[in-house]
Amino acid sequence: MFDRMRQGVFLILLLLISFSSSSAQRSTYYRRIFVDAEYYMLYEEYRDALPLYQELYKAYPNNYNLAYRIGLCYLNIPNEKAKSLPYFEKAITSISNNYKEGYFTETNAPKDAYLHYGRALRILGQFDKAQKAFEIYKNLLKTNEITELRIVRKELEALDNARYFTSNPLKHRMNPVGRNITTRFPEVNPVSDSSGNTLVYTSVQRFYNAILISNRGNEFWNNPLNLNPQLYADGDIRTVGITSNGNVLLLSRNDNDIYNLYYSTYNKETNSWAPITKFPKEINTSKSWQTFGSLSRNGDTLYFSSNREGGFGGFDIWMSIKTSNGWSSPINLGKNVNTPFDEIAPFLTEDGKRLFFSSNGHRTMGGFDIFYSDYENKAWGIPINVGYPLNSTDDDTFFFPIKNGKEGYYSKNSESKGDEDIYHVALDIKSPR
Asked: In this structure, is the dihedral angle defined by the CA atoms of residues 403, 407, 412 and 415, taken in order, positive or negative?
């Protein structure tokens, strides 16, 4: 009998050791998944991070931090934003003032969950609920959290703007460019010459970004030509501008986590584009990002967005003039145009009298909106929001004007496809004086 008891104890010990070993192996496995998910999140690869967080959440359904991270993923994936709501709603039930980001052992959510929950509600048009979420977040902040307080005040202002603009829509006409341009891939950053009949854009394909060009036929756009072989363009590169005569193409490329501006010139005799050339150090600096650029009609003035030192906030719009000695030291466009937040994607009309750009610092409906500023009395005027429905309660960041701003091309999310498509826009706004 004593031997049987000893055998039983031995079996229990074996089971405990086996369970402990199995549990340790599972913990190690899930920790690795968490690290991978956090890596994708750091680089804003939300589609890749999402299934990893979902696997973790299945194993730990009462982890409020995982619910928060899943909510963030859905909030940043086009046409999936509504799916973020139940995850944020769970996350805000367990908020920690001592939240430790990036820790596998963290099971609570940060107070930022209220901020992102409010943004999701705003994007989905639930303005009253969004206001309550933002106000709760504001009350959770301490008086020394100055940046966070400024952000939430901006969000509350945006809700008032959204209510106004959606109640007073303009008669912008937006039509998809359609056949031969629209594919299953996202089509972004469309630029065109002044005629509007040549379109250069970026197709975000599975393994690379394709720089494509198409000309308008009698009824449809022609099949696009891939310019990458001519441009020697590789990596994370996108179209960001073109001169009104269509002879100089501007691109932005990620060079080891620093975005730089490049250009390519068109040779009419050979009907080909030159390999891309990097703008000089006066434009591209080693410590800042240069993300969008626009050249004047004759190509001697460059407007571009950069987060270089000496600005008003994050990204500002700067100007540089080409002289016989090269490009001048950039000049900030000043406080009428730039804010403590971000101003990006500047595009000058052919006549040089109007500048379109995107900002999340001026009077927006939430996130980035498209604005324009007119050049009068040797200065850029107070920016004007182009209004709803061109602007929405989500981010609106790329409008390229043609015909002196009466029309333009715009890339935005397609509800049917779930990714960005290109639209032709006829604007319902006044012409500059």
From this structure: negative
